[in-house]
Design a protein that fits this description.
Elements (H helix, E strand, L loop, with lengths): L7 E6 L3 H12 L6 E3 L7 E5 L5 H11 L4 E6 L9 E4 L4 H22 L13 H12 L2 E3 L5 E3 L10 E2 L2 H8 L10 H6 L1 E2 L5 H15 L3 E4 L4 E4 L5 E4 L3 H9 L8 E4 L13 E4 H13 L3 E2 L8 E3 L9 E2 L3 H10 L4 H8 L3 H13 L3 E3 L11 H20 L1
Parallel strand pairs: 1-2, 1-3, 3-4, 4-5, 8-17, 9-15
Antiparallel strand pairs: 6-7, 10-11, 10-13, 11-12, 12-14, 16-18
Helix pairs in contact: 7-9, 8-9, 9-12, 11-12
Length: about 400
């Protein structure tokens, strides 16, 4: 049987530690690393133990959170569900390998489809000023290529073009996580991630090195490399979009990346399959892929946020509601929670936009906004509530 060249990332739901350990050993041993256990946010497929407490509820909840994922059900009983692959305990290696191979094929097919999405604009109500700014950016965006030539960026002809994703295709970018209760600490933990563990951090540090040393910097991965120009604008890469996405969505494994300084007259070999891309465009994308609708660890959901400047939308990977969020934050500061509430959109879209904008240095937070008195009705309400509680406590005494 032909094995997939790369292990599929699998989340397990409802399993006790004994069964998890057995499955992990199986992946590392007799199944030739066809799969690897990961947390739910990084998974490409799920295995659900239907014999666990709330087995059917776990299945329903998982399908709601990840409607596009393959799911494998295991049970000591015979289960008949038309839409899911079912395996009977005790698990047989050959059957599990077959099920995971099918799931992997679905992932690869989905990845191929995602790269074929045509550019499309969202039907978003924007002010005429924002529309005009967008049109000017589309018409005038000179980009210097690696060979020194100057070309103008247009949405259909270069890697700098904006990609407007619809709700369905944005699920792979933003995820499907439900809104959280900000009063629940466990919910707060669930929507945070540490950027330093992901590819976006290594890319950012390489950009800093290129700028500070005024040298070309090559960031090499197991699949290809990225060359960062010391001009603060561009970089070249021979990594495909799907390879970059795979690198960006899971924590980086140690010793799989290397950084090297290149000579000042460095040029790619003519046979190298490199393309030129904008630095902010790639930083924005890698941050979105790492985020999946989460925020960097330590982010305050109640502090006011404002954009330092209007993003160059013609070079960014955009998703539903992104322009609406930008339009709010360019005028005055709002907290992340208030933004989602005001726009009437799922919190994950606001969290994802913040993570990407933060990665390219576009956001001001807290006192940096210089306009806290108009920032956040939620925070002001909370402050009034706290004051009222202190007064009541004083009266009781």
């Amino acid at each position: 049987m032909d094995m997939p060249s790369k292990p599929i990332r699998v989340a397990v739901i409802g399993m006790d530690e004994r069964l998890k350990n057995a499955l992990s050993l199986f992946f590392e041993g007799s199944c030739n690393n066809i799969g690897v256990l990961v947390d739910e946010d990084s998974a490409e497929a799920g295995i659900i133990d239907m014999d666990a407490y709330r087995g059917h509820e776990n299945l329903t909840d998982y399908k709601q959170r990840h409607p596009d994922q393959s799911i494998i059900l295991i049970s000591v009983n015979n289960i008949s569900l038309d839409d899911e692959v079912t395996l009977k305990k005790p698990l047989k290696p050959k059957q599990l390998i077959t099920a995971l191979s099918q799931a992997k094929k679905r992932v690869l097919s989905r990845d191929d489809m995602s790269e074929c999405f045509t550019t499309q604009k969202q039907s978003i109500s924007m002010s005429e000023g924002i529309k005009l700014r967008m049109e000017q950016e589309i018409q005038e965006n000179p980009v210097m290529l690696g060979n020194g030539n100057i070309v103008k960026s247009t949405p259909s002809s270069t890697h700098h073009a904006a990609m407007y994703l619809n709700e369905k295709s944005a699920k792979m970018l933003i995820g499907t996580a439900p809104d959280i209760d900000p009063a629940d600490p466990q919910h707060i933990v669930r929507i945070q991630f540490d950027p330093s563990e992901y590819f976006q951090s290594h890319l950012y540090k390489s950009c800093i090195t290129a700028d500070s040393k005024n040298r070309y910097v090559r960031l090499t991965t197991t699949r290809g490399s990225i060359c960062i120009f010391p001009d603060g604008l561009n970089m070249t890469s021979n990594l495909s979009n799907s390879q970059l996405r795979t690198l960006s969505t899971v924590p980086v494994v140690s010793n799989t990346l290397s950084v090297s300084l290149m000579s000042s007259d460095y040029k790619h070999d003519e046979n190298d399959d490199y393309f030129t891309t904008n630095r902010d465009s790639l930083l924005w994308k890698t941050a979105l892929w790492a985020s999946r609708g989460r925020v960097p660890v330590g982010t305050s959901l109640d502090s006011p946020v404002m954009l330092k400047q209007w993003p160059n939308m013609t070079r960014l990977l955009l998703f539903p509601h992104a322009l609406r969020i930008a339009a709010m934050w360019i005028n005055k500061p709002y907290s992340l929670l208030t933004t989602a509430e005001t726009l009437g959109i799922p919190q994950r879209y606001v969290f994802g936009f913040y993570s990407a904008a933060y990665a390219v240095g576009l956001v001001s937070t807290g006192k940096q906004t210089g306009n806290l008195d108009v920032a956040d009705e939620r925070q002001q309400s909370s402050n009034r509530h706290s004051l009222f509680r202190r007064i009541l406590d004083r009266l009781r005494k």
